[in-house]
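Narrative summary of target 7.
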Amino acid sequence: MPKTDTRLKFAIYWAASCGGCDVAVVELGLKLLTLIEKAEILFWPAAMDFKYKDVEAMPDGHIDVCLYNGSVRNSENEHIAKLLRAKSKVMVAFGSCAYEGCIPGLANLYNRGDIMARVYQETPSTENPQAIIPMTCSRVPEGELELPEFYDAVKPLAMVVPVEYFVPGCPPVVDQVWNVFQAIFDGKLPEPGAVVGAGTKNLCEDCERIREGTKVKRFHRPHEIIADPKRCFLEQGIICMGPATRAGCGRPCIHADMPCRGCYGPPEGVADQGAKMLSALMAVIDPETDVEELVKQIEDPTGTLYQFSLADSLLQKIKWAEEKKR
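Modeled conformation, tokenized:
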């Protein structure tokens, strides 16, 4: 009799994102050999030739674990999210885009019409005298062409389908990716709803940089000053998202002499990363400094404080709640 394949069945999907999360899996290197010993990859279109019809033919719950990376930006993203949810026992929001919306979520500062106009009509390099905007359906001599519907807003995965686990990072660092796989293989995943592959405290508690309690009289962008590589970025007036960001990444940005950008999302118990960071900034400002003038020195406050979490922020949820009342 043929030997039964007892490996866990995996799916990995790339939605509205840059592809870095798929690269993070590939960067496991030789550990990929261990991965395929323990897991059968049933669907990974970024790496192998799979089709949507392959998933559609599977019975519900056939996939043990699906790692879905990318936010939900259009109708195709939503369709595949719902399809993979139906076919999977465990759904994982893998990476910051699926977890919080990430950088694509900053587009939520605008609407679909604004974005289309900017991309296809207003950019200096665009030549479009007829002001043509892509349509979901177009007739050509060969037949009918269809494009996914571009939604008015970006949504994290959990706003579209139920999600069991969340893996932060843009992308998740390789060591943590392997830790997630190990937890799955060993049956040591926590209760559903948890963040896995990261710590619980904030990045500052893990950081070796020296903090002296210095108050800030001016904010600088990283290229504007030569920072002391041993001292806290924030106390030197360089915005570092460490106080409002979950630890567990290993601090690759800090070790490269760059401040944390916040891609691992808020630490345990923090509902809104941007609000937490604003509180941290107020705590380091010199009380004798004109706060209003100091805040003006922050280039793009929303993009700085909510670079990765705007789509999952309280600001976004309040906006959507208000829109539903209209």
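The two ends are 64 Å apart (CA to CA).
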